[in-house]
Amino acid sequence: MIVAKVTQLKTKGDTFFIAIEAGMNSLIRPALYGAYHEIVNLTKLAPPKKVIANIVGPICESGDTLGHSRLLPETEEGDVVLIATAGAYGRVMSCHYNQRPPAQEIFYQAMNALS
User: Fold this and answer.
1) Could you tell me if 66 and 24 are in contact, meaning their C-beta atoms sit under 8 angstroms apart?
2) What SS3 class is residue 15?
3) What residues act catalytically?
4) Which listed residue, of 21, 42, 62, 82, carries a Cα 20 to 30 Å from 75's Cα?
């Protein structure tokens, strides 16, 4: 999974965009072959979903879209979103495209309560 902050909201024509701090350099799968990743606004889990938006990154390339036409609650700059199931492919396929470092990788190891 990738967790990122919302950095910008904008409308162009009839399309609403939610820009986040992570982009195609951290998760190239949607740009390469249209892979679907669930996107959730973690800051606003309870409010109803009523906004349709494209989720885009900061790279300013036409392929820097992580999700097309996603139904989300009303979102604000600073909200935190989750891009699910990025997994190992997200990391091994990431790069420093356009001199942007990919999302930071954090490992979490569950501790067995019985040991």
Assistant:
1) yes
2) strand
3) 60
4) 62
**Amino acid letter, residue 26:** S
Inter-residue contact 81 to 40 (CB < 8 Å): yes
CATH ID of 2-99, from 2.60.120.20, 2.40.50.140, 3.30.230.10, 2.40.37.10: 2.40.37.10
Surface-to-core class of residue 83, CB atoms within 10 Å of its CB (0-12 exposed, 13-18 middle, 19+ buried): buried
- pTM for the model stands at 0.85
Considering only residues 110 and 90, tell me which one the structure prediction assigns the higher pLDDT: 90
- pLDDT by residue (tens digit) across 19-30? 999 999 889 899
Rg of the Cα atoms in the chain: 15
The Cα 109–Cα 69 span in angstroms is 34
